[in-house]
Amino acid sequence: MNDFGSRYESVVDKQIRMAQERSDFDDLPGKGKPLPGLDGPADDLWWVKGFIRREGLSTEALLPTPLQLRKEIERLPETVRGLPSERVVRDVVAELNLRIVDWLRAPSGPRVQIAPVNVDDVVGQWRAGRRAVADRPPAPAVPASTAAAGGPAPVVAPGRASAWGRTGRRLSGTRLATLTGPRTDRPTRARAPLPTPGA
């Protein structure tokens, strides 16, 4: 008597058998080569490390919160350097300080000394950087006759105003306003009352 299991072929087994008959598996990349990483030490997070390496991602997101905050504090001068206004610089520092205070209230991870950033110091560095850029002599302009005569096109320094402008609008938008409270440095506009139905 034939066993039911010997004559039954699942759909998956059938697809594999048909692909082998068509020689679909004969020229796969890596055929005949050992699997990578088998000779290394056993690592439970091998797949995470492989994904990060393949995708070219930063490993900073894997750091504990205090180390992430410390790196952000170290990079803060470069972060605010291209921001368009003092208000946006203050908003960026305030948002970072909120995250620092949140971590200080309920610390987790390694004990790393972190303190809120002094907003006035960062703004002072930002102003000094802006003055240094403003004090540089402007690039010589190319006369219109040279440009019209097919001469070299003027070299225009790439501006970051548009990208930082979008960042500034996003940072000073609703999300940050809800974190830092209402702005008190400008008057509020009175709104007309809504009409009541039936009036």
Report on this model:
The protein has 199 residues and is mainly alpha-helical. It has a domain at 8-60. The chain has helices at residues 4-7, 11-21, 46-55, 65-81, 86-105, 119-135, 144-148, 161-171, 174-180. The model is unreliable at 156-182 (pLDDT under 50).
Please describe the topology of this protein:
Blueprint: H1 4-7, H2 11-21, H3 46-55, H4 65-81, H5 86-105, H6 119-135, H7 144-148, H8 161-171, H9 174-180
Highlighted features:
single chain; elongated; 51% helix; 199 residues; 9 helices; mainly alpha
Radius of gyration: 31 Å
Helix content: 40-55%
* Category by helix and strand content: mainly alpha
Low-confidence stretches: 156-182
How would you briefly describe this protein structure?
The protein has 199 residues and is mainly alpha-helical.
